[in-house]
Every structure is written in structure tokens, then in C-alpha cells.
């Protein structure tokens, strides 16, 4: 049986005779191009998506549920969607079951890769529909802030919902901030 040992003076033992590794020659550190970093980042996110999809597929099998899993890379994060079948109960009344499944999926990816995951999961287009509603709310509240000249505080929201509000407000040329502590964290929209 071969034994491989790695160190400064590597040796390989087995049925063959002992061989010493040549001395290491110091190489200049290669500079990685932005394109190369981007390709590596996308590949890492695609790997996250594959790991997450395997986890979710096993979860659906255990629960004996039908559904197709779509994998994408969106906004510098892996994005997965479970579509088809009767899945509404996996969302919950206000997305709380979806949030829990998303967190479990992130933990499965972290266990496999060793890195924290920021993947997003959508089931039965819940987040897609919520995004449309929140953009509309942000636009209405931005108009109100502009016309009244006063800041507007919105109801408490989770991180996903607050991000949509912040992104929409920024697109409209206004500013916003998150205030408070979870689970009562909310967005304040400023008029100027």
C-alpha cells in the first residue's frame, strides 16, 4: 500500500524505492484578472446551486412532493425556484416556511462547501409576486415622501423585503435606511 506524505521534503513510499522531491523554486505570484475572478465566482455560485438542488430534491422526495427545481445565478448569489406541483404549503401563510427551508438549504450548502451561502429560494413564485407588490409599495411611498417632504416609516419587514424596498427607492433617486431590530426592523424612506 502506498503512503503519500506532503511536507517541504516530500517522499513517496511503497513497493518502489524512496524518492525525494526536488527543492521548490519560488515562483512570482500570478495576478488574477477581473474576468478570471468573475468566472470563478460564477462557477462557485453554480456549485452552490447544484448542491442546494440536490438537497431540495431529496427533501421533495422524502415529502413525496412533485416539483421542478430551476437553478440560476442572480445578483451575485445562487437562485433556486421550485415550481409545479402543489407546493403552497411549503411557503406558509407569510413565507415563514419558505424562509425556514431556505435557511436549511443554506446550511446544507455551507456544510458541503465550508462557506456561508447567500442563496435565494423561491417556491410557487411567492418571492416573485412579493417583489412586484413591494416595488409598487416603494414607488407609492416614494411619491408620498416627495410630495409631503417628510420621511415615511414602513411596517416591519424581513431582509428580503427590505432589500427590494431599498433597491427600488435607490432607483427612484431617494434614500432609505433600515431601522430597529429584527423581527421589528423596518425601512424609513427619506424625501431628499
Layout of strands and helices, then pairs:
Layout: E1 3-5, E2 11-13, E3 19-20, H1 34-62, E4 68-74, E5 77-83, H2 96-113, E6 120-123, H3 126-148, E7 152-153, H4 159-171, E8 175-179, E9 186-190
Parallel strand pairs: 5-6
Antiparallel strand pairs: 1-2, 2-3, 4-5, 7-9, 8-9
Helix pairs in contact: 1-2, 3-4
Features:
192 residues; GMP Synthetase, Chain A, domain 3; alpha+beta; Ribosomal Protein S8, Chain: A, domain 1; 2 domains; single chain; three-stranded mixed sheet; disordered N terminus; three-stranded antiparallel sheet; globular; 9 strands
In terms of structural class, how would the helical and strand content be classed?
A: alpha+beta
Q: What is the correct CATH architecture of the largest domain?
A: 2-Layer Sandwich
CATH fold-level assignment of the largest domain? GMP Synthetase, Chain A, domain 3
Overall, the morphology is: globular
Mean pLDDT: 85
CATH superfamily of the largest domain: K homology (KH) domain
The percentage of residues in β strands lies in 15-25%
Query: What is the CA-CA span between the terminal residues?
Result: 73 Å
- The helix/strand order is EEEHEEHEHEHEE
Count the DSSP helices.
Answer: 4
Protein model, in words:
The protein is an alpha+beta fold and about 190 residues long. It folds into two domains: about 35-125, K homology (KH) domain (GMP Synthetase, Chain A, domain 3), CATH 3.30.300.20; about 130-190, 2-Layer Sandwich (Ribosomal Protein S8, Chain: A, domain 1). About 45% of the residues lie in helices and about 20% in strands. It contains four helices and nine strands; from the N terminus they run βββαββαβαβαββ. The strands form three sheets. Strands 1-2-3 form a three-stranded antiparallel sheet, with no helix packed on it. Strands 4-5-6 form a three-stranded mixed sheet, with helices on both faces. A three-stranded antiparallel sheet has the order 7-9-8. Strand 1 and strand 2 form a beta hairpin. About 20% of the residues are buried.
Amino acid at each position: 500500500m502506498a503512503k503519500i506524505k506532503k511536507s517541504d521534503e516530500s517522499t513517496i513510499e511503497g513497493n518502489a524505492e524512496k524518492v525525494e522531491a526536488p527543492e521548490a523554486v519560488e515562483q512570482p505570484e500570478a495576478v488574477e484578472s477581473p474576468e478570471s475572478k468573475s468566472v470563478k465566482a460564477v462557477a462557485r455560485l453554480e456549485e452552490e446551486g447544484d448542491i442546494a438542488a440536490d438537497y431540495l430534491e431529496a427533501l421533495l422526495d422524502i415529502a413525496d412532493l412533485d416539483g421542478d427545481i430551476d437553478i440560476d445565478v442572480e445578483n451575485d448569489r445562487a437562485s433556486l425556484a421550485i415550481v409545479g406541483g402543489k407546493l403552497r404549503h411549503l411557503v406558509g401563510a407569510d413565507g415563514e416556511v419558505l424562509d425556514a427551508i431556505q435557511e436549511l438549504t443554506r446550511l446544507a450548502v455551507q456544510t458541503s462547501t465550508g462557506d456561508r451561502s447567500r442563496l435565494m429560494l423561491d417556491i410557487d413564485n411567492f418571492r416573485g409576486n412579493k417583489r412586484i407588490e413591494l416595488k409598487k409599495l416603494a414607488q407609492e411611498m416614494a411619491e408620498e415622501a416627495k410630495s409631503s417632504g417628510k420621511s415615511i416609516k414602513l411596517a416591519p419587514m424581513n431582509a428580503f423585503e427590505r432589500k427590494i424596498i431599498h433597491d427600488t427607492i435607490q432607483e427612484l433617486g431617494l434614500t432609505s435606511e433600515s431601522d430597529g431590530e429584527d423581527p421589528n426592523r423596518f425601512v424609513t424612506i427619506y424625501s431628499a
